[in-house]
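Hi everyone, sorry if this is the wrong subforum. Our group has a chain we'd like a structural model of before ordering constructs, and none of us has done structure prediction before. Sequence below.
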Amino acid sequence: MSTSVTTPVLAAGAVCWREGRNGVEVLLIGRSRRGDVSLPKGKVDPGESFPVTAVREVKEETGFSVALGLPLGTTEYSLPGGRDKIVYYWAAEVTREQLLRGRFRPNDEVDSVDWVPIAKARKKLTYSRDVDLVDRFAELVDRGEHRTFALIALRHAKAESDSPDGTDAARPLAPRGKRQAQDVGRTLPAWAPTAILSSPATRCMDTVAPLAKNTGLTVKPKRSLSQDLWESDPTAAPRLREHLQRRIDRRSTVVLCTHSPVLPPLIDGIADIVGGERDGRLTRAAILTTAEFTLVHLSSADPARGILALESHQPVD
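Answer:
Right subforum, don't worry. Here is the predicted structure as tokens:
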């Protein structure tokens, strides 16, 4: 059997939502060429990550710029030619600002867009797999957990083994690490972080430099994220917890770039603050390769509901 048939088609999209007059509404797209009503999605371009694809496709098909929220899982189905297709989805709020700024224009793929209540969306969607996704999102709405923010724990990119001055903190990124940093800078804007915090170590600051350039944010060095502090100062743990508490209280998405030894207490610190069930997922969420990151999703309405979801991503490189 040929590779073209056995290799699945990969795609990504979103269940876009807004607060309507009578409750939460979701955005459907109409495609007369295919004779269906579905959700915005599209194929992954070469070298592109799933989150970037999801945001790009929503923009291209609907005219709205969105930030991703909770992951909604995947749909899998077979195409007419025999290939399987796997689509990754997230929830994505279309804010009031984007509703005013965005403008839909009919294109080769999409003829129309329509905001409808969830119950009506179930009836209008052509495919049962899309109804399943809306049902997943509806469960979040029923629990009041559809509006979220994330604390993003990022391990620095690949670094050189030595530094110009012989200190660990001054180690620069290796060539591979520089490529990874560029990928981080392309991918993390999909969640629209409002702040970038980093260990002062050179390899951490350089990892988030492309992200800062792409978002217009300023990187804020934080000693509580420093490996040197964790190896020398017994006050490191309470200082980190205090800092995490402040970020959670602000209820906005933030990137925290740090080192492998700091990741477990960072993830545990978030879990301690927000409470909820603890299991092996927290351990896996803290074991990251270079330039890998974990999103810890929390409720904007009440972070004390606990961790709503964890998702980890590796660089495409």
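For your construct planning: The first strand starts at residue 9 and ends at 20. The chain has a mean pLDDT of 94.
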